[in-house]
Please model this.
Amino acid sequence: MKTKKLTALLLSAAMCFSLCGCDSLSRILDDNRYDDYYYDDGYYNDGYYDNGYYDNGYNNGYYDNGYQSDQRVPNLVSHYIDVGQGDCEFIEFPDGETMLIDAGPTSSGSEVVRYIRNLGYSRIDYIVATHPHEDHIGGMKKVVESFDFGSIYMPKAETNTLTYENLLTAIQKKNKKIKTAKAKTRIVTSSDSYLKVETLAPNSSSYTDLNDYSVVIKVTYGKVRMLYMGDAGKDSENEMLNKNYNVSADVVKVGHHGSSSASTQKFINSVGAQYAIMSVGSDNDYGHPNSQTIDRWERSGAQVIRTDIYGDIVLTTNGDTFDIDTEKN
Model:
C-alpha cells in the first residue's frame, strides 16, 4: 500500500432512514432501567464536570507550566477511517486506552470492526455517537455488539428511525447506560498530564437542526491539537465562539462533510488549522464537500485532505510534531 506522508513541525459516515413508530421506540425505553422516560438519572447519566480540569474557560494553556518540548513521550494515533459518505474516527491514546467517534453508515459496521481489530484491540474504552444520523451511528450497532467497551456518550437528541432504535437496543443488551455528552464534559480521565480530551458542544438543549446536537471534541496532546466536529453547523460554531471557547487546532475534522451549512469564515479563522480533513463518499448525492467551503479552508492556509480521494488518514503525534499518512497518493 502506497502512503503519502505529510510531516509538520508545529508552530504553536448508506442505509435508508427507516422510520419506526413511536410505540416501538417507547418499548425500548419503557423498562425499569429508566427513571424518567428517557433521560434524567435513567438511561442517560449526565456528563460530569470537573472544574479543576478547565483553566479559565479553556482560554489559558493547560500545559503551560508542565510540558517540556524536548521531553520524549509515547505517541497518540488518530485514525480517520474512510467509511464512504459518513464519519468515523478511532483514537489510540498513549496510555493504551482508545476512543471511537462515530462508526459511519450501517454498511460500514463490519469494516469498522475489522479495522479496529486489525490494530489489535478487543475493547474500546470510550465511544462517542456525535448525533443520531445514520451516516454516523449506522455502523455503531455492529461495533457495540462486537466489542467490550467502557463508556458511551451521546447527546440528548432522539429520532424515530430504525437505525437509532437498533443502536439503543444493542446498548441495552450490553447493560450499559448512556452518558450525556454536552459542552464542558471531561471524557477521558488519564494519568498522562499531557493529554486532554474535552467536549466543546452541544451548548444548547434544543436545536432546529439535528446536526447541531453534534458532539464536538477537542483532543490536546502536548502541543498538538485535534478538533472533531461531527456534523456541527453554523449555529453550534457561533455558540462556541460566543462562549470564547478555545477552538484552535492544528488538525480539524471538518463539520458536516465540508457542506455549506458549516465552516463559517469566522470559525475557520478561529481554528487556524494546518490540515482540514473532510470525511466524504465519492460522487455522493449531497454534493459534499461544497467547493466554497473547500476554498475558505484553503484560503485560511489549511491543506484539505479528503477521504474520498486519500482513503484512510492516520495522524501520529508525539506531542511535539505530527505526521499524517494517507492510504492513497
Summary: The chain is about 20% helix and 25% strand. The mean pLDDT is 83. The first strand starts at residue 4 and ends at 9.
